[in-house]
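Troubleshooting log. The previous structure file for this entry was overwritten by mistake, so regenerating from the original sequence record. Sequence copied from the archived sheet and checked twice against the printout by T.R.
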Amino acid sequence: MGEQRQRYNEEFKRQTVKYVQEKTKTIADICEELNIPKSTLHQWIGQYRAFDQEEVNYPEKIRKLEQTLKEREAETRRKEREMADLKEEMAILKKALHIFSKEKN
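Regenerated output below.
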């Protein structure tokens, strides 16, 4: 006959999701270790995920991400200025080419 379904208590589910969030092992490794199907673990993660356990909430991580964002924004502004300068130079060169390519009478 069919196999008996494994039942897990609420605390076990929460601890397993916390274990996943701490990034100590991959989901596949945890599933294999605990003999839990991946789909079941993904359901638990959707149900019991606590964002305070995730790395992004650490102040140091937030500061680092903000600094990276500021650096990228500054780089984008610099590139935009450079592009505007190059467009202006191209417009001047086009005008000069037009002037010098006219036939002289």
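The first helix runs from residue 10 to 21. Archived copy saved in two places this time.
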